[in-house]
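Researcher: Please predict.
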Amino acid sequence: MKRNIYLKKKSLNEAKEIASKLASLIRLGTETVHVVQSLGRVTAEPLFAKISSPPFHCAAMDGIAVQAESTYGATDDSPKVLITGKEAWFVNTGHPIPPATNSVIMIEDVHQIDSERVEIREAAHPWQHVRAIGEDIVATEMVFPENHQITSYDIGALLASGYREIRVKKKPRVLILPTGSELIEPGEVNLSEPLPKIIESNSYVLSNMVVEDGGEPFRHPIVRDDFTKIREALLSKYEEVDLILIIAGSSAGSEDYTRSIIEESGEVYVHGISMMPGKPALLGKFKDRPIVGIPGYPVSAILAYEELVKPLIYQILHLIKPEKIKIKVFPTRKIPSKLGTEEFLRVKVGKVGEKFYATPLPRGSGMITSLTKADGIIRIPPLSEGVDENQEIDLQLLRPFEEVLNTVVMVGSHDLTIDLLANVLGKYYPPVFLSSHSVGSFGGILALKSGICHLAGLHLLDPVTGQYNIPYIQNHLKGIDIRVINLVHREQGLIIQRKNPKRLRGLKDLLKEEITFINRQKGSGTRILLDHELKNLSINSSQIKGYEKEEFTHMAVASLVASGVVDAGLGILSAARAMNLDFIPVTKERYDLAIPSVYFEDEKVQKMIDVIRSKEFKEEVLRMGGYDVSKTGEELI
């Protein structure tokens, strides 16, 4: 089969306009549902009250119902006595008042003399503490118009106005068809064996997004990359749905059949969109049904849905798509972007001082964690080549604004205990969150100097003094008052493959020609430690195969070793254990948190320190192995 190319590539705005026009292909029917089960449904007709609410004059308070005129003249000095059953009637809140009455006196203002008489010391006025008939809803009054989405409150109004059932629009039925020979159903996974294929998850994500937006998803089982099979699946199901989402098969590849299948039975309007992630998205018509080709990478799939499918569903239901909250942020570094493509950059956000700062997450469209970890999205326009470091820019929040305000922003070295700290912090202080960005220890020093974080994680060995962290703080953060809290002491060493097949014994063995190594990035504490140890051993780093290749976290190093891509990397013992790898100790080092004094007394920072000093946190750290917590929580300077 000949290779696909993007013949009908459009800008995002053009694609959204075409998607909007596709909505005209869908005509939703109506159905009757019980009011109590109508949450989120959209009215198919205007609803007029069948009865008034309340349906009679009723008491708004517990007390006595009276004719207001019969109470005139009552004062503290001249109380009035009323005969019960003749001039006054006891009533409870919500009960109808007798026909001859027009006012209620609260029971607290009534003195009962005996079973037949009550005394009052203040006159009532007409309709005092009385809910008149129709005070809330009057019969024949319109309760809700057509195209109104029912809320929890609305259900109460409908029941009060006499409705038990209402006519609503049917939910848009959405077929979700995952394709790909490389995929496996989640239920077929055996975690005790190596995975032969990729777990299919996009269809489940999209199904739940459809539900959230008021649609009804119909997931088709995985269809392998076969022109005939995919076409048969579409032909067998398209008449049962209003909209089709076909996952993967719409890029510029030689085994992508979606475009050809649609052209055979309909028309392709868009093939490729100038957005990133999400470029391979497709828009067309299959028979008489709108069809959207969703890219196979998770982030691309989600963003393509958000930009094309979500607005389409809301338009079909005649609803206004809710807009995300926007705030102004400053990037923590310069962010380049491809000219001509609108980029959706996932970022972490925190307020430090008076400004909000955004730190980019990995840009790969296959990394769904870049969305699950993201606090917001920065949209870089297609005519921009990126964002400058000091440029204020709009950000769409993906989580509540209050969470951003209660986030402790940490930048610096990576350590597995940071995730434990974030978890225990969230357990005991749910309003407080910890956002950690792994850029290496020296990157943490620079972040403190720039004022873009609350604290930095450091494990920088000074080769001259043999001390950790403090010499760097004193040399590079002059004029900034810094306080240092010890987090842990930890073991650094060579992370090697299980059972040590290459028979490595230490750093000197990295010189063997058959050994491949993975390094940490320049400026990281682990890189500085490695260079220090190599110098002590008189080893020329240029002789180590892979020394120039870098990763940014201990887990990334361990993952490459576990996959067999490399033989060894320098990292912490807990990372080796997490990946079931072997470990050759090199040294024990100190990992500290450097906190500017201006933020040290901040309530959320203090709560974080309380957690660090807690027994539970220390016990969880020790369970990971490779750590010493004897100094954890101690203030060093």
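Model: The mean pLDDT is 94.
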